[in-house]
Write a structure and sequence with these properties.
- The protein has about 110 residues and is mainly alpha-helical.
- About 70% of the residues lie in helices and about 0% in strands.
- Helix 3 packs antiparallel against helix 4 and helix 4 (about 50-60) runs antiparallel to helix 6.
Length: about 110
């Protein structure tokens, strides 16, 4: 598995986000801001396609909801859900199976 795929998998997986954002603990957690920053860096290494460009634009325009609530972010906040879905589409375009990653890494 390539590093960029793993970065995008964390952003594309609602299961990972539930475990590491909503139900995070002091030893196992994702920081949503870092997921977005890492995804932008990973996407810079990918070929510029309409999908990559759209995903980068969505990430750059993203604003966190106020007040911040992890459960709301992951399950209800449409801009986050859009980025998650686009990340999943990008992984599919890369030939990466998110469900296989979730089964083996979560």
């Amino acid at each position: 598995m390539k590093r960029n795929e793993k970065i995008l998998a964390r952003l594309a997986s609602v299961l990972a986000q539930e475990k590491y954002i909503v139900k995070a603990n002091e030893n196992e957690y994702y920081v949503p801001e870092e997921l977005l920053e890492e995804a932008l860096v990973a996407l810079e290494a990918e070929e510029n396609t309409k999908l990559v460009d759209k995903l980068k634009k969505q990430i750059k325009a993203f604003e966190f909801p106020e007040p911040f609530d992890a459960r709301n972010l992951v399950f209800n906040y449409e801009p986050w859900i859009t980025i998650r879905n686009l990340s999943h589409e990008q992984l599919n375009a890369m030939g990466f199976s998110l469900s296989n990653w979730e089964a083996s890494d979560l």
